[in-house]
Design a protein that fits this description.
The protein is built from two helices and eight strands. With 163 residues, it is mainly beta. An eight-stranded antiparallel barrel has the order 1-2-3-4-5-6-7-8.
Length: 163
């Protein structure tokens, strides 16, 4: 499964590099930070990671997005013991849309799956609604909620730099 995700990321990156001359295609990398909620917060506290995103402009206001990367959820201490839950890496594979409401303000929605590694070892349906602000031509910030089917989610932020 990791080989598949690595292959997908390689294809997205190589396609974006060759398409950078076209104004319709943009590629960005982002740092992710999230606070676990729901069932996810029973065993994990925060998630820290990095993602890459390819965007294809449909028109002046809307873009199709493809996103993947890795997010590490930090394990919490198990109450009443000296033990701690192991951290868990999550690999999201998402596709969606981004729509500009104003010149620097946009909405985002993505759907896909997330591959949980470690003891969880599961694949969860994932949905990610968010609101973003474009700081300048190269930098933007997205406030979002990442929901994992029957497993809770995380409120977070993604700060991205366009290459």
């Amino acid at each position: 499964m990791r080989k598949l995700v690595t292959g997908i990321i390689f294809i997205v990156v190589s396609q974006s590099v060759s398409a950078q001359n076209e104004s319709k295609v943009k590629f960005n990398v982002g740092a992710e930070l999230g606070l676990a909620t729901g069932n996810l917060s029973d065993a994990y506290s925060i998630g820290i990671g990095a993602t890459a995103q390819l965007e294809y402009a449909m028109d002046e206001k809307s873009r199709i997005t493809v996103n993947s990367g890795i997010i590490q959820y930090i394990g919490k201490k198990i109450s009443g013991t000296a033990l701690k839950n192991q951290s868990n890496a999550v690999i999201p594979v998402l596709a969606g849309v981004k729509y500009d409401f104003a010149s620097n303000f946009y909405g985002s929605a993505q759907l896909g799956v997330s591959l949980f590694t470690g003891k969880v070892g599961a694949t969860k349906f994932t949905y990610v609604p968010g609101l973003g602000f474009r700081i300048n031509e190269k930098l933007d910030a997205l406030l979002k909620y990442t929901g994992y089917s029957d497993f809770g989610g995380a409120f977070g932020v993604r700060v991205a730099y366009s290459l």
